[in-house]
Specification:
The chain has 715 residues and is of the alpha+beta class. The protein is built from 30 helices and 14 strands. A 5-stranded mixed β-sheet has the order 1-2-3-5-6. A hairpin with a 5-residue loop joins strand 5 and strand 6. The longest helix is centred in the middle third of the chain and has 20 residues. The chain is elongated and about 105 Å long.
């Protein structure tokens, strides 16, 4: 029956079987039919290897430990929880599964490449990551920790990937390998939590060192260097050591438990060919140990070793190595030690095509949050050296000499060294004439002159700032400088758009306008040469009895004397007029908490002064502490007892609402005359600033690495 149904199909296949049978089975060629199907997807070998890797690893660790799949983590395939005799230990680590069909190298090792940005991510995780490799050639399983990656000091900073090499010691044979994993996991946790033992025992092997080195002399030197660490380092035989230092003619390598925090220094040919070969080799060994100590958190002893041995080491000519040391110093807040390390490099003018210009080290120190805590003599040395380098650049016609001088001036300004800052700003303008065409340069210089009461120069530079950059930021400052100089009418005639002023400065600009209008309205004078010495005339008893006596003395001596305006406050019949007089007194005194509290008290009486009240709070908090302001509220009780609590509540409420932050804007001037403004407190702008600032000095690979570190830190 089946033959009848399929007869039409048979007719298409006239050939007979050997027996002449035309049955269905004889004519059904399975391979022919399958070959005519639509091709189906084939599972990639990489996926197969990953599965084989998981199964092979799972067979080794179970039933003693538990392997759990993880979905969604970046570069993480599984998680392992460790059990001891069936009891949970709370010890967990993550796993990245890898597989390869490649043959072992001539040295019997297998290699795996991993993106460097992925390693940085793994190292940021609270849980350590174990890289597991399955080899398809023989089904072996190997394992190394992500923390075993040697990130320097002589690695290729251009590379975007790192290579993990698995050797026989990394092979997981059976459950006997589990204690090793657990011991290495404990070591990683100890290093991360800074719980490593005080004494570190290292085995030193110099049997393969260059022929020009006397091995016994080298070991003796290293033993002495260990002794000088005060017991932190001890030389031990191989079986009892925590780590191993190997010295041969091509490299020095220090490996800790599981190769964690390992460090390798690759040597140039004939590095140990001179008469001081043993001394140099010892210095190299101690520098490698210094980097290792910095990586595991023993920062102080690591820094001391680095500073002591750098000049005698081959690393003194290896800028990337010095940079890594310096970055470790900065991360640990060792600014003084970092300065000792890089100062010789800065003075020598050393450069490297593979990393940032060395004078950026100086910038990292001065912009570090702990810079203000440095001893005065260290800060003096840093500033003097920076100025010396900048002047050397100027003498050599280096393009960024003016920028270097400007940077030193900004540091002096931040430290309150106003006269030094003025001198350096002026010098920057002499070296780089482009500064004279930039509004912000004149605004900065004018502010310094204002702070030293050289008001004519302050006004001169504020005018230039307005002419060059527009009135948005400099016009209120020009108005304030003119007012302090006694040019009241001219100051009142300065107009500007309040909305164009950065929020942080608006409260001061609004209060200054109120102050200026009140001065002109009450005194009726356009300008005056201010007489700041009015101590004797203030004893006149008529001042407390008559407003006209107060205003007459203002007109004849100083229309901005805060003491006279305090007296004028109590001569006013209207609360709004009294408020404006109190504002003049508080604004001109700046740091008198009692005057700001008085202004707040009066603003609580004047119904329409809510906006002014907010501005008063901003300026009061900018110039006085919360404690000082709260303490002065008791004085308000003498005026109106039920208002003391109102003023206290105003102060406390304001502490709960963050005021506008001080803007930190970096302006980058391009060759076409345009300007890029970047907000330092904005993450995207900060990263862009990093890219622009370092682009001229960093290689693409180095820049990528630094920006990735910045992103990881922000995460």
């Amino acid at each position: 029956m089946l033959d009848d149904i399929w007869a039409p199909v048979y007719s298409a296949y006239p050939a007979r079987s050997a027996s002449g049978d035309r049955s269905l089975l004889a004519r059904f060629d399975r391979r022919t039919i399958l070959s005519k199907r639509t091709p189906m997807p084939q599972r990639p070998r990489s996926h197969q290897l990953e599965t084989l890797s998981k199964h092979a690893f799972e067979r080794i660790i179970t039933p003693h430990w538990i392997l759990r799949d993880i979905a969604g983590d970046y570069g993480i395939d599984a998680e392992v929880e460790i059990f001891d005799s069936g009891y949970a230990t709370g010890e967990i680590f993550k796993v990245q599964l890898k597989g390869t069909d490649a043959q072992a190298s001539k040295k019997g090792t297998f290699s795996v490449s991993v993106d460097i940005e992925k390693i940085y991510y793994w190292r940021k995780l609270d849980t350590p990551v174990l890289i597991v490799l399955y080899t398809g050639v023989d089904g072996s399983v190997y394992a190394r920790w992500a923390d075993s990656w040697d990130s320097g000091p002589s690695r290729n900073v251009e590379s975007k990937t790192a290579t993990f090499r698995f050797s026989a010691k990394d092979r997981l044979n059976s459950i006997t390998s589990l204690p090793r994993i657990r011991r290495e996991l404990a070591a990683i946790r100890e290093l991360r939590e800074r719980r490593q033992p005080y004494e570190i025992c290292l085995s030193v092997n110099a049997s393969s060192a260059a022929r020009t080195i006397d091995g016994n002399d080298l070991l003796a030197r290293i033993r002495v260097a260990f002794f000088q660490t005060g017991g932190v380092l001890r030389m031990e035989s191989q079986g009892e050591a925590d780590g191993y230092l190997t010295i041969d003619k091509s490299k020095l390598r220090l490996a800790y438990i599981g190769d964690i925090a390992s460090c390798t220094l690759h040597l140039e040919k004939n590095s140990y060919s001179g008469p001081n070969a043993a001394e140099v080799a010892c210095a190299d060994a101690m520098m490698v140990i210094a980097i290792f100590l910095l990586r595991i958190g023993r920062s102080e002893i690591g820094a001391k070793l680095a500073i002591r041995y750098l000049s005698s080491s081959n690393m003194s000519n290896h800028m990337e190595s010095i940079d890594e040391l310096f970055q470790n110093f900065m991360a640990e807040g060792l600014l003084a030690e970092g300065w000792q390390l890089v100062k010789p490099m800065l003075l020598s003018g050393a450069q490297s095509e593979r990393m940032n210009p060395p004078d950026f080290w100086w910038s990292q120190i001065i912009f570090h949050e702990d810079f203000g805590r440095l001893p005065v003599e260290v800060k003096d040395d840093i500033i003097a050296t920076a100025e010396r380098i900048a002047e050397a650049k100027a003498s050599g016609g280096v393009r960024d000499a003016g920028a270097s001088l400007y940077s030193v001036a900004k540091v002096c300004q931040a430290l309150g060294r106003t006269k030094e800052a003025i001198r350096l700003f002026e010098r920057a303008g002499e070296v780089d004439k482009k500064y004279l065409l930039r509004g912000y340069y004149h605004r900065e210089l004018a502010g310094l002159y204002f702070d030293t009461d050289v008001l004519d120069q302050a006004i001169l530079h504020y005018r230039k700032a307005v002419d060059l950059a527009g009135p948005a930021e400099s016009a209120p400052l020009l108005s304030d400088a003119l007012m302090h100089h006694g040019e009241y009418s001219e100051a009142a005639g300065i107009t500007f758009d309040m909305s164009a002023i950065p929020p942080y400065y608006r409260p001061g600009a609004r209060i200054q306008q109120i102050v200026l209008k009140r001065v002109v309205a009450l005194t009726g004078i356009d300008s005056q040469i201010r007489n700041l010495d009015t101590a004797d005339v203030l004893a006149d008893p008529t001042l407390e009895q008559s407003l006209s006596a107060v205003t007459s003395l203002m007109a004849s001596s100083d229309a901005l004397d805060p003491r006279l305006w305090f007296m004028a406050t109590f001569h006013q019949e209207e609360a709004s007029d009294a408020l404006e007089c109190a504002l003049v007194s508080a604004y001109m005194s700046a740091d008198r908490a009692d005057l700001w509290v008085l202004a707040l008290y009066l603003s609580s009486i004047v119904a329409e002064s809510a906006d002014i009240r907010n501005d008063i709070c901003h300026l009061a908090f900018r110039n006085c502490s919360v404690e000082e302001l709260l303490e002065q509220t008791t004085a308000v009780a003498n005026l109106e007892i039920n208002k003391a609590e109102v003023v206290r509540d105003l102060i406390l409420d304001f502490t709960d609402s963050p005021p506008p932050r001080l803007p930190r804007v970096v302006r980058l001037h391009q060759d076409d005359g345009t300007t890029i403004e970047l907000d330092v407190d904005n993450e995207d702008d900060r990263l862009q600033l990093g890219a622009i600032k370092f682009l001229s000095g960093f290689s693409e690979g180095r820049l990528s690495e630094i920006l990735q570190n910045a992103r990881n830190s922000s995460e």
